[in-house]
Each structure stands twice: as C-alpha cells, then as structure tokens.
Amino acid sequence: MKRIDKKDYNKSMGILIDLEDVITFSEGHIDGAINIPYDKLLTNYKDYLNKTNRYYLYCKKGFKSRKATAILEYYGYDVTQVIS
Fold first, then answer.
1. Residues 39-68: pLDDT tens digits?
2. Which of 20, 68, 75, 78 is the most buried (most CB within 10 A)?
3. How many domains does the chain have?
4. What is the CATH classification number for the domain harbouring 22?
5. Mean pLDDT (whole number) for 9-27
C-alpha cells in the first residue's frame, strides 16, 4: 500500500478525497480536498472513481483511509493513503 505524508501532497499529483463525515469535513480539511464520506465511497466507489485517475485518501486518524486504500487498491484503483 502506498502512503505519503500530507505535507508532501500537492494538487498536481491527483485527486484528494477526505473520507470524514460532512460535519467533520466542514470543521476543517486539507485545501483542495473533496469530501466523500468513507461509507458512501466504499458502497458506491464505481460512481465516484475511475481507474484512469490517481486518488489520495485522507482521514484525520488514518484508520478509514488505510482500510479504504487497501480495498480500492485490491479493486484495481490507483490510490495512496495520505497520513498526518
């Protein structure tokens, strides 16, 4: 599983997805991140992702992003966990 530190992420690398719930996301997030809550992403990943893009997954504690990265990588998506 690929990982990078959030200080090393920049927008040109790919799409940053914050997996927190809507309320937590609204309280603060990394600039440029889009919000797709963890459960919503994993149950509807084909609606949000395509295999030609690179995605960076982030959550505050790292648990959801680690699990989502492993699952989506298994399904063939180019995903990287962003850690703090």
1. 999 999 999 999 999 999 999 999 999 999
2. 68
3. 1
4. 3.40.250.10
5. 96
User: What global pTM score does this model have?
Assistant: 0.95
**Residue 34, strand partner residues:** 17
Buried b or exposed e, range 34-66, using 16+ CB within 10 angstroms: ebbbbeebbeebeeebeeeeebbbbbbebebbb
Instruction: Give me the sheet containing 15-18, strands edge to edge.
Output: 2-5, 78-83, 54-58, 15-18, 34-35
Enumerate residues 6+ apart whose C-beta is below 8 A from 59: 18, 19, 20, 38, 65
Q: List 55's β-bridge partners, or say none.
A: 15, 79
Q: Would you tell me how many other CB atoms lie within 10 Å of the CB of residue 25?
A: 18
Q: Which domain holds residue 74?
A: 2-83
Mean pLDDT (whole number) for 7-26: 96
Residue 1 vs residues 22, 24, 59: alpha-carbon distances, Å: 26, 26, 16
